[in-house]
Amino acid sequence: MKRVIFCFFAVICMYMFPSCGGRSSSGSGNGSATEVDIAEKLWAELDLTAAPNTLAAKERQAGWQLLFDGATINGWHGYNTPGEVPDFWVVEDGNITPNSTGGGEEQDLITNAMYRNFAFSVEYKLSAGSNSGIIYHIKEDPQYTFAYETGPEFQLNDQSNRPVEARLPGIQSHGANYGMYAPSSQPFNPAGEWNRLMLISKDNEVIHIINGVEIVRFTKYSDEWNELRNSGKWNAFPDYGKFDEGHISLQNHGSKLWFRNVKLKQL
After folding, report:
1. Structure pTM?
2. Looking at the 3D structure of the chain, how many domains does it have?
3. How far apart are CA 59 and CA 52, in angstroms?
4. Could you tell me if residue 2 is inside a domain?
5. Which residues constitute the domain of residue 212?
6. pLDDT at residue 17, rounded to an integer
7. pLDDT digit string (tens) for 158-203?
8. What is the CATH number of the domain that holds 139?
């Protein structure tokens, strides 16, 4: 598996020559160099061999918690419907999945709890041409119809099974910070195969990882972020990115996909 951030020689360099311990941004955006190893450290805490929907001993010891037990959707509810899970979100063979396609975009499945600084990990499998995402720092309020009106999104979609003319640009492609930052590479497996992502948000530093490879890193409220935020894409959603704490959602975008091994660590 490809490693994120540091190779072995970079680590040796840090110990021998402290001045070379910094890093520039990996992926897109103006990544900060303040916590050079946070992504590799957090990824290494996961046990990639553990049985689905379980916490391995090392994960538990590191402070990870399980957000899906493989049997129920306890701890989640539909966006703007506290205490209720929309009918089309079901558990199927140990996976969270919509049981129908089309519509329901306003009813993402969101965590009951709200999070500020966290690492979120999930395995996902896309169907051909499917579109979804992980949205975070969501404000739940009847004045908003969709979770994406306030929350940034780790975009998930299958482009390979779409007609060329229907394929999305880089800032809307698989792994992107939707509408803001394009991924630097495409380390994902094709539709029908499992992938594992990690989303890290800590003190305005945001990192996207797929299958152990960092593909996006940016700093919220940086000059670059503000410029992109105000470039026109989000004019219809003035509260996009406004909140620094909120719910996390599995997005329903009218297509079939599966989620399992949903885990979170508060940072």
Report:
1. 0.86
2. 1
3. 13
4. no
5. 24-266
6. 41
7. 988 766 666 778 999 999 999 999 999 999 999 999 999 999 999 9
8. 2.60.120.560
